Amino acid sequence: MNSSAVTFMFNVLKRPFSSVSVTVSIMKVLSSLILTVSIIGFGIGCVSLSVKALENYFFPLWLTLGGFSVIYSVAHRFSYGRWAWNYIALFILSFAAGALQQLMPEHFLWMQVNAIVHRSFIMALLVFAVTVPAACSAIFALFGATPRAQDISRYPLLLAPVLLVFSAYLVLIINIIVNGASNLDWEIIVNPFQWQSWYELVYKNGWPTRELMSLKQAGMRNHILGTLLLIGLTAAFSLPIGMCAGIFIHEYRRNKLSHLIRWSTTSLRVISLFILAIAAYGLVRHTSGTPISDLVAGYFYDIQGIRHTGHGSYLLAALFLSLLVIPIITRATEEGCCSVPKELKEASLAVGASDNHTLFHITIPWSLPNVITGLILGCAEVAGSVAVILFLAGSGQFGVGPLNEVTSLSFFIWDCEYGAMTFRKLMEPYQLSAALLLLFLTTLLTVTAFVLQRRFGKRYRGA
Amino acid sequence: MPSSIEIENVSISYNGTKVVKNLTLSIPPAKVTAIIGPSGCGKTTLLRSINRLSEVTDGCKVEGKILLDGQDIYRMDPVLLRRKIGMVFQKPNPFPKSVRDNVLYGVKATKINADHQDVVKINLEKAALWNEVKDRLHENAFSLSIGQQQRLCLARCLAVSPDVILMDEPASSLDPLSTSRIESSILSMKGEFTVVIVTHNMQQARRVADYTIFMYLGELVECGETQILFENPKREETREYLQGRFG
Fold first, then answer.
1. Is the pTM of this model over 0.95?
2. Cβ pair A352:B80 closer than 8 A
3. Domain ranges of chain B
4. pLDDT tens profile B54-87
5. Is A368 exposed, middle or buried (0-12, 13-18, 19+ CB in 10 A)?
6. ipTM for the complex?
């Protein structure tokens, strides 16, 4: 046995007994514990933004985090001869937070208005403030305190806001699904809302008497169909106009008129929706009594066959909503046209195709994925926007057609809160059900947009 | 019928910068003419002005006369002109359509009534591609290899039966095997078309061209039969370029 082998074996035997290597492995274990605890703590913090009972789980969090960090700091002192100040700070912060939670009153008045904030909300914010740096430090230590470890250790900082927003979104969706689905049944979907009352001549003991009759029915069929009709009409108005405008802007880039169109679509995009609503309402008011009143205001017959004039028809609402969607489609078309490779256009021109032929066979097919995506996202916006139809919409109990009074699911949600007494009485329990349906519809549209974009991209762009 | 091209005193400028300066030359019909020269000497610009594709680029201005069979091309309809003058580009640029539709694109655009299946077969054979793609005519052109794509572009250009074919460094992005196939197609097109090929590969010019034009910094330095130009150049710059002293 030569001497180097002896030295090697001696080193192997010696290694476990070195105090430095023991403390270093303790530090590794501690960092992974701290990382685990902060990830769990962050999760609890996210959920406790909406569930206040979870605040009791914060105490073990403060205890373990504070304890582990103080042990870590001592181990650091043994290994490297100095305290780990960031872990000391972590220890102080956790124990201060625990003490604060003990001393804090259970509720707060938020900015002197009557919104009451529970203690757990503020503690959750503190949890984020402590767990994110703790996770960063733990990852830094776990990866060996190298420059690469420094790069990796910033991930908690980048991920935390994303997770926070996502969890807020998740809480909203879960709330809508749980509370909305519990009321939702088949009857409510297939029946239209009805609340009509009238007097009828009834003979009682041979005497004619006027009796109050009424028809009351909860349901949202017309709101669902109305949303679909609104989407369809708006798409029919805005797709040709938006595509034409987009193609014009692209084909005649240097033209003055093209600049004007681009400017006006942009300004349409930023206009307040309530201004559109006021304009639409003004149109209804000022055309009443004129021949186009039926087109603009809409009309319907009640249960006794009496003709009424509405506040605004689907046609008018779709026209004003298309002002919202046209800029989206124009922009999408223009972007699609601009993304056509120059080589393809030149290849088309070089084989003797005219500009028109190139437009219809190269440029438009290439931009179709963009157009479709723009259209569908615009439709999702139409389904969700209540501001434009706020002054035009009604309860939708008299049917769905281009010249009926407009209504939609998003207006249903508004109506449950601020609408007529009759409507609120019947439909208030179904507010979140409508929200659930709306969420489902918009998700469906968005997913369709992505699927179509991929499929059309494969078909028309070959990639 | 192959046509001749006369270029008379042509200057081309981009936003005021002259790229081609007072060029006069003639390109004989039914022959292969190569334009050689170092990068940035205006070869491609000159080529693109022959089928008026330079008009598509913003800020490009062409002065002088270019005659196709004695007719001024700037008095012709550009679309009709481009039907007579086909072009193959440096980078293969097939359309995102099937192989068949790619070949027939020009035919359909120009409303030529032809038996489509025949057109596809004949032109793919001319471009030496038929045997490789005859079973995949309905696949997307992007599924072909780069060399096959370039030959597909050649077939697409041949399908409208032009008189002149312009080639802008058609083999610069291809492997040697595809290059030799393209070159053999060019050689087989001799007599049927007037071919103008831009290249900065001197050996390629030597292999395929009947006539060679040497351009340097936007000016015509020397032109003549390939054999004579390569073996016995008259001008000192040509000799130096051919020997690889610059460029």
1. no
2. yes
3. 5-89+163-243
4. 888 888 899 999 999 988 999 999 999 999 999 9
5. buried
6. 0.91
